[in-house]
Every structure is written in structure tokens, then in C-alpha cells.
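Holo model, flavin mononucleotide. Inputs:
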Amino acid sequence: MPDRSPLSRSEYRHVVSRFATGVSVVSTILDGRRHGLTVNSFTSLSLDPLLAMFACEHDAALHQPLIGAGAWAVSILAADQQSTSAYFATRERTGTGPDQFDGWASRPGPVTGAPLLDGSLAWLEFRTWATYDGGDHTIVVGEVVSMQAGADGPPLLYFRSDYRA
Ligand SMILES: Cc1cc2nc3c(=O)[nH]c(=O)nc-3n(C[C@H](O)[C@H](O)[C@H](O)COP(=O)(O)O)c2cc1C
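Output:
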């Protein structure tokens, strides 16, 4: 093995940011309070059973209610939902009001009650199937309990640390 200097986090971010992804908001409801988090780690996993997964940072405000509720939903964002993505990625949203979805048009998921954001490209609901250690994130695998396609429009994309349509 050649001698290497320690790999840096900033270089890692710079390199992996070249992988283009979609953007989703993961949501849950616990004790009547709705929580949401912008993620680009959501991905489909298995057809038998129907599974998908995402990674949730340990420090994220969503982490504890997500684990407590054992159920969650995903709203897959459309190109015109950039401000929605920005809001659910700011730390300020957790300190301003009693409920993170106040002011955002949504409906409760039919199975879990987790909020589904209006105007999204698709919605899925999950029961947590397994969780795994993922360093400073928890890898959360969910079994699909409901799903629905929304409008046919362009997706919101994330590439090189910026939104793209
Ligand atoms: C496009 C985008 C994708 C993100 N993807 C993830 C993700 O997959 N998992 C995660 O834990 N955080 C992700 N984040 C970061 C969280 O949205 C952000 O850390 C959030 O503000 C956490 O704040 P909180 O502690 O108030 O919940 C992403 C942020 C952006 C803008």
C-alpha cells in the first residue's frame, strides 16, 4: 500500500457530491407532533418484501421520534419544491413552533398518519423493518405499507451541493 495522508471529510464530501440524487422529505408523527427531515439518502431496496431505506443522522431532531414511532412516510419532491427542501433541512424549524408542518399543505398518511406533502411526485409509508449502525447515521429500512404516485412533473435533484431541476 502506498503511504497516504489521512483522508479528509471535506474531500470526501467534494467527491461524493458528484453523485446526483433526488430529494425527499421523511416525516413521522409521535404523540400528535409532526416531524420532517430533508434527505437525499432515500433509496429503493427490495421487491420481496417491499423495502426501502434512508440514513438518519444521530443528531437530527427527527431521529428520536422516528425510532419511537416505528413508522414513517416519504414525500418525493418535485422541481418546484426547493423551498420545502430548504425548510426541512434547517435547524431553525425545530425551535420556532409546536409543529414542524404548520404552514405546509399536507395530509395524514392513510396508514401511519405521518404527513404527506402536497405537490410531491409520489408518497410512500413505511413500518420500520430494521435499523443498522451507519457511523454517525442510523440506516433505517422500512417495509412499504402504502404508496401513491402524484403529478407527472420534473424531480428536484441535488448535485455538487446544489439543487438542480
Ligand atoms: C439535499 C439535502 C439532503 C440531505 N440528506 C440527508 C440525509 O440523507 N440524512 C440526514 O440525516 N440528513 C440529511 N440532510 C441534512 C438534514 O436535512 C439537516 O441536517 C437537518 O437540518 C438536520 O436538522 P435537525 O437537527 O434540526 O433535524 C440533507 C440536507 C440536504 C439539504
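Residues 23, 37-41, 54-57, 59-62, 89-91, 94, 137, 158 surround flavin mononucleotide (CB under 6 Å). Residues 9-16 form the longest helix (8 residues).
Archived with the compound record.
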